[in-house]
């Protein structure tokens, strides 16, 4: 080893140069690893948060809601149903009075991506045709691949609690459950969006 090289190794400037080179080399590796972890998390989470506290209630019946979707819907609603309780049960659970004889929960809705695109966002719209009111839930940061199925649960509509059924937001204020329908708006990974042709019609 010549004298110049030995002196260079001992110099502060040389050590700093080697440090910079090392950082430059390692940064791309770190980016690749970070992206791999991010992709693994998103591809492994095909539905909304499932780490939820299940609602505790005694349902009188499960009732299937109407579904509004065009034939070319990329995200098919396979099933949409609510739980029903009496007005007295509602008051016991929520400590809030109601004039309704029957109260229905927000729905549990099952979907399937039947398109050839990855879906990253879903807006579920609950429409009370009689009252002409809408309630929505937007689910973002998803990675729903073609063919994948996933479910939105009633518990996803409220914040985590000991019993989500105690939260008034777990319930719908509707007089006639047969007049309640659901539909979706879909956001794709490529930036495009899909909605029913009559999306704006109540």
Note down, in words, how this protein is organized:
With 202 residues, the chain is of the alpha+beta class. The protein is 24% helix and 31% strand. It is globular, with a radius of gyration of 26 Å. It starts with a helix and ends in a 7-residue tail after the last strand. About 16% of the residues have low confidence.
Element string (H = helix, E = strand): HHEEEHEEEEEEEE
Biggest pleated-sheet summary: 6 strands, antiparallel
Task: Report, as a whole number of angstroms, the end-to-end distance.
Answer: 84 Å
Shape type? globular
Strand content: 25-35%
Integer-rounded radius of gyration: 26 Å
Average predicted local confidence, pLDDT = 78
- At the first level of CATH, what is the class of the largest domain? Mainly Beta
Give the count of helical stretches: 3
The overall strand count is 11
* CATH topology assignment of the largest domain: Immunoglobulin-like
**Share of helix, binned:** 10-25%
Structural class by sheet pairing and helices: alpha+beta
Poorly predicted regions are 16-47
Summarize the entry for a quick read.
With 202 residues, this protein is α+β, with helices and mostly antiparallel strands. 24% of the residues lie in helices and 31% in strands.
Question: Which properties best describe this structure?
Answer:
single chain, 202 residues, Immunoglobulin-like, five-stranded mixed β-sheet, 3 helices, 11 strands, 24% helix, 31% strand, globular
Itemize the secondary structure elements and their pairings.
Blueprint: H1 3-10, H2 12-43, E1 61-64, E2 66-67, E3 75-86, H3 87-94, E4 102-105, E5 108-113, E6 119-128, E7 133-139, E8 149-152, E9 171-172, E10 180-188, E11 193-195
Parallel strand pairs: 2-10
Antiparallel strand pairs: 1-3, 3-4, 3-5, 4-9, 5-8, 6-7, 6-10, 10-11
